[in-house]
Amino acid sequence: MLEDKLLVMKCKGGSKEAMRRIYDKYKDYLLTLARALLNEQAAAEDVVHDVFVCFAQSVDKFQLTGSLKAYLATCVRNLAIDTIRLKKQQVKNLYSADTAGADSENPEEQVIEKEELKKLRQALSRLPYEQREAVVLHLKGGMKFKELARLQGVSMSTIHGRYRYGLYKLRSLLNDEMIK
């Protein structure tokens, strides 16, 4: 957190290296969040890019009062929602099959990991958006339920319910897939 404050101060002073360090530090985390929310690699990359461009353009007015990671994650979440709304207006398919590359050297393991990841993403895409957001931001994003409640503008019990029901439905969908 102290490092982030220092980096933000350096960015305000015009340091491109500080901006690059912030980007390198958070890009993978934010891309994972965006990909989980949008279920589309290209759209996720666009969202993360746009968040960093907007951050760079407004850094001189930016006041870091909490976690930079949480702030950037909130920006990604909000822009992801805007992206989904725009796609709905354009009547495009929201969910395309997206297979990410695996790190394994073994081709068989790569195929298995890609297939499992595809099944997980398909199951996630079938969750109601609020449940998917609660599950992804809590598990992948590391956000606390209190932050999620504030982010979604609902009570803690509602967030707990969305998370619990989301996990239950996700398990159910994945178990049904395994039986087939």
What does this entry look like structurally?
The protein is an all-alpha fold and 180 residues long. It has two domains: 1-96, Rna Polymerase Sigma Factor, Chain: A (Orthogonal Bundle), CATH 1.10.1740; 105-180, Orthogonal Bundle (Arc Repressor Mutant, subunit A). The chain has eight helices and no strands. The protein has helices at residues 2-12, 16-38, 41-58, 68-89, 107-125, 129-139, 145-152, 156-179. Helix 3 (41-58) packs across helix 4 (68-89) and helix 5 (107-125) crosses helix 8 (156-179). The longest helix has 24 residues, at 156-179. The radius of gyration is 18 Å and the shape is globular. Mean pLDDT is 82; it is low at 91-103.
What order do the helices and strands come in, and which of them pair?
Elements: H1 2-12, H2 16-38, H3 41-58, H4 68-89, H5 107-125, H6 129-139, H7 145-152, H8 156-179
Helix pairs in contact: 1-2, 2-3, 2-4, 3-4, 5-8, 6-8, 7-8
